[in-house]
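Let us practice reading a record.
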Amino acid sequence: MPVIIIKGHIKNKAKVKQYIEQLCCALKINRMRAKVIFIRFHAKLKNDFEGLCWGDMDEGFVEIDIAKTTAGSKLPYESIMQTLAHEMVHAKQYFRGELNPVDHSWKGGKPYKYEYDNAPWEIEAYAREERLYKKCWKKD
């Protein structure tokens, strides 16, 4: 399992860590023991983003930032956890070398500037986030 470091205030931190471990298994990155996942929960992120992920396969880490509010409104806990699933898809993409953090080339292709909605890494993350959340989040 990658090393998981959670910073910031979020309720049920132990349950969140278990959720992240389940996401790692579902994304098949659970055997990457030399990797590190830093997750920080913030009151809000710049530009009202709900989540951000940046990583480097060679350095072996990803950094995920998750907002608890956006546009001045508190996000539902379930939405925060689904956003975390979305960002964990990006973690998998960085760890597997599918997404290059320097030039945003995809799966070894040429560097290309995509519109956000048409970027293949976003298409994959949006397609998988809800299903991953439902599969990996254990309701009480």
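A brief commentary: The chain has one domain: 3-136.
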